[in-house]
């Protein structure tokens, strides 16, 4: 039995920035902490606000389709992002095109929002590639399955950015400076690599925004086991700013991330953003959340669904009419159909051969790999011959 | 030919300096490598010449050193990370084996991570726990890495340079007890070190082959000297590259001598000697006059240094194995 205490939704930490009520009422600073972020909303034009909504809805639809595809045996695993789209789409909207994203394995809204196709996204989960997309094409690093490892890659990359731009003027930085978004979860925050990333980023003023999606659960382990305080409070210990934001409030997440990116871009070093959100479904398709958490908890978080909140906001502000919403729904259906089509058409021809792995293990010739590759060719060719003979 | 006589340590310093000069994207990072010049002074003077941005005193965090090096490499830099001692690489083991080694394959060849990691390794310096280990097999087992280990000053200079120039991640295990060994270094002509992944026959012989690397090469040479006095001609091979291993060179020698001893400081069990023995048995079984014998450390945590002489393969242990080769 899950006790009652565990089934109540976690309240936001008192300092969490919130610009939108759960009902999506017009933006206002709902507490003192929020006030300084309100001005950042002025940068969010109609198109960008609509885009946040579009990214959330299409991502959720692709997510549903991928879950179904996994159930049908078309994917080896799927990592749902339902519930976290607001945090992801809000943060993404705050980045400039030149900025880099170093995701974990759940940042589907960020990846799709940057243009990664559902096919490219799902190659990993089909077991057909370790990364389905070329990182440089979208400035989205490959998904990383070893928790927190990518936070160091992000920090090193950002360190390099800082070195490249060390003699830039503040105006050049503001216009063209690059920022790196390092994503991680509340569970991953316990890994040493997160700590080491923050130490290095602070030491070298690396323009990195640490973006923690605190979705309250690390598989079955609740947040309280990872930390006694909100993650954002840790930033003070490293000597930089940390802000907790209502991650199911896309406007607030946008505004806080825009502020954080502006800070990092200016060359003063890293910033930590903790987006307080909730993983609505299972951790992955291999997980069973009924074993460790209550239905009430899940249901009470549905009331804070970022998609519903954003839709109320757009409606109330006259930023989206029925035509817009149905167009987005249609787009989401299209994308879902494309997703299914892409996955079921991943036949042997579209899946890389083991030969490609041989080709990419090393940049320079390697005698052992070449010998094993030749052996593998001969082995495979042997089957082709016997098949021929049998025919 | 212009050569200069340098210790292995100073040859490495020279190699690092020449790479820093050749490419302004090359940078060094590690603990205490700046003003102090590293605990072995291998980076001495480099911060003064190249500045604190290129010779970086990093925070005390091995995973951080390797992990940020990966990010820097992706940004177009060529980081050379120093791990202070062999036994302290393990906080960075995760980044080396799950990230650095795999990044190229993971990204289908689109991301290069030309990171070099320098690790002083091996015993025989009378130090305390975790300062004398030989963890090379733990890394050689991981595909995607290259591993070099020099045994002479000339090789130390060139393996450093070639390692840094490689587009693949390279670990250079530096034989710390040989840091003060002097030798002629030709900074213009690499000679055989032009391809650092090729083994070197450092002494010709006909009766048996002794394979060694890093700190044990001088021991193997001394054993060959003694054996010669007793009328047995040993061929000594310095492997130099532990990944890949130059099996062709080993096979050639084995076919000539018919007998082989592999000596390394790391524990015999699960060590590279087993890999060499198995592979050469597959390749040249009929040429064998005796099984390939291994001489290595015991299956023990590296012992307190007062007894390390009993642990480390020495001249006598190698000669004893050679004798056994002739009893089959
Ligand atoms: C180093 C490491 N240890 C364990 C795992 C297995 N694992 C995968 S996800 C996960 C929980 C992560 O939780 P959190 O960081 O909160 O992210 P979330 O999945 O909730 O988004 C664990 C333990 C892993 N991937 N990497």
UniProtKB/TrEMBL annotation, chain A:
Domain of life: Bacteria
Domain Dehydrogenase E1 component: 53-335
EC number: 1.2.4.4
UniProt cofactor(s): thiamine diphosphate
UniProt KW keywords: Oxidoreductase, Thiamine pyrophosphate
Reactions catalysed: N(6)-[(R)-lipoyl]-L-lysyl-[protein] + 3-methyl-2-oxobutanoate + H(+) = N(6)-[(R)-S(8)-2-methylpropanoyldihydrolipoyl]-L-lysyl-[protein] + CO2
Record function comment: The branched-chain alpha-keto dehydrogenase complex catalyzes the overall conversion of alpha-keto acids to acyl-CoA and CO(2). It contains multiple copies of three enzymatic components: branched-chain alpha-keto acid decarboxylase (E1), lipoamide acyltransferase (E2) and lipoamide dehydrogenase (E3).
Annotated family: Belongs to the BCKDHA family.
Descriptive protein name: 2-oxoisovalerate dehydrogenase subunit alpha
Automatic annotation (TrEMBL), chain B:
Residues annotated as transmembrane: none
Keywords in alphabetical order: Oxidoreductase, Thiamine pyrophosphate
InterPro entries: THDP-binding, Transketo_C/PFOR_II, Transketolase-like_Pyr-bd, Transketolase_C
Transketolase-like pyrimidine-binding domain: residues covered: 6-181
Cleavable signal peptide: none
Cofactor: thiamine diphosphate
UniProt KW Signal keyword: no
Pfam families the UniProt entry points to: Transket_pyr, Transketolase_C
Protein name: Transketolase C-terminal domain-containing protein
Organism of provenance: Citricoccus muralis
């Amino acid at each position: 039995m899950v006790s009652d205490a565990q089934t109540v939704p976690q309240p936001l930490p008192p300092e969490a920035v919130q610009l939108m009520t759960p009902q999506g009422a017009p933006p206002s600073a709902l507490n003192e902490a929020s006030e300084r972020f309100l001005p950042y909303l002025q940068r969010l034009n109609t198109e960008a606000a609509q885009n946040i909504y579009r990214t959330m809805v299409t991502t959720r639809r692709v997510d549903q389709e991928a879950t179904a595809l996994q159930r049908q045996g078309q994917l080896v695993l799927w990592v749902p992002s339902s519930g976290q789209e607001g945090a992801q789409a809000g943060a993404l909207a705050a980045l400039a095109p030149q900025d880099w994203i170093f995701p974990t394995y759940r940042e589907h809204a960020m990846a799709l929002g940057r243009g990664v196709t559902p096919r490219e996204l799902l190659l990993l989960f089909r077991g057909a590639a370790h990364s389905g997309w070329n990182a440089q094409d979208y400035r989205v690093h490959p998904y990383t399955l070893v928790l927190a490892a990518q936070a160091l890659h992000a920090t090193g990359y950002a360190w390099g950015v800082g070195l490249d731009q060390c003699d830039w003027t503040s105006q050049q930085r503001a216009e063209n400076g690059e920022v790196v978004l390092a994503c991680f979860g509340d569970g991953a925050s316990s890994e040493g690599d997160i700590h080491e990333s923050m130490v290095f980023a602070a030491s070298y003023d690396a323009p990195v925004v640490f973006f923690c999606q605190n979705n309250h659960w690390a598989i079955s382990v609740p947040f309280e086991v990872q930390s006694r305080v909100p993650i954002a409070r840790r930033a003070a210990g490293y000597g930089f700013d940390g802000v907790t934001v209502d991650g199911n409030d896309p406007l607030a997440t946008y505004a806080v991330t825009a502020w954080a990116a502006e800070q990092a871009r200016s060359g003063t070093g890293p910033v930590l953003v903790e987006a307080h959100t909730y993983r609505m479904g299972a951790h992955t398709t291999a997980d069973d959340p009924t074993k460790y958490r209550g239905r009430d908890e899940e249901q009470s978080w549905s009331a804070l669904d970022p998609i519903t909140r954003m839709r109320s906001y757009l409606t109330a502000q006259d930023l989206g009419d029925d035509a817009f919403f149905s167009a987005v729904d249609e787009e989401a259906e299209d994308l879902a159909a494309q997703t299914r089509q892409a996955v079921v058409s991943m036949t042997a021809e579209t899946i890389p051969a083991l030969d490609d792995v041989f080709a990419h293990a090393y940049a320079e010739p390697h005698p052992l790999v070449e010998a094993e590759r030749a052996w593998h060719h001969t082995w495979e060719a042997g089957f082709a011959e016997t098949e021929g003979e049998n025919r | 030919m212009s050569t200069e006589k340098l210790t292995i340590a100073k040859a490495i310093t020279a190699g690092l300096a020449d790479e820093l000069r050749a490419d302004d994207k090359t940078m060094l990072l590690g603990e205490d490598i700046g003003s102090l010049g590293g605990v072995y002074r291998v980076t001495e003077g480099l911060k003064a010449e190249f500045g604190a941005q290129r010779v970086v005193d990093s925070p005390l965090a091995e995973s951080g050193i390797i992990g940020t090096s990966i990010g820097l490499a992706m940004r177009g830099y060529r980081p050379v990370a120093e791990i202070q001692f062999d036994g302290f690489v393990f906080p960075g083991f995760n980044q080396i084996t799950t990230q650095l080694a795999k990044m190229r394959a993971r990204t289908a060849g689109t991301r290069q991570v030309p990171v070099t990691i320098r690790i002083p390794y091996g015993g025989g310096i009378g130090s305390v726990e975790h300062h004398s280990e030989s963890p090379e097999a733990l890394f050689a087992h991981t595909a995607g890495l290259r591993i070099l280990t020099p045994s002479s000053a000339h090789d130390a200079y060139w393996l450093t340079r070639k390692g840094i120039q490689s587009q693949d991640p390279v670990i250079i295990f530096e034989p710390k007890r040989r840091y003060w060994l002097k030798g002629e270094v030709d900074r213009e002509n690499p000679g055989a070190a032009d391809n650092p992944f090729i083994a070197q026959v450092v002494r010709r012989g006909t009766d048996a082959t002794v394979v060694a690397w890093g700190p044990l090469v001088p021991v193997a040479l001394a054993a060959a000297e003694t054996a010669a006095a007793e009328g047995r001609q040993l061929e000594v091979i310095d492997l130099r590259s532990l990944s890949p291993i130059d099996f062709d060179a080993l096979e050639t020698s084995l076919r000539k001598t018919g007998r082989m001893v592999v000596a390394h400081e790391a524990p015999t069990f699960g060590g590279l000697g087993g890999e060499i023995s198995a592979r050469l048995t597959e390749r040249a079984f009929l040429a064998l006059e005796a099984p390939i014998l291994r001489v290595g450390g015991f299956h023990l945590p590296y012992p307190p240094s007062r007894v390390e002489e009993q642990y480390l393969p020495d001249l006598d242990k190698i000669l004893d194995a050679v004798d056994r080769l002739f009893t089959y």
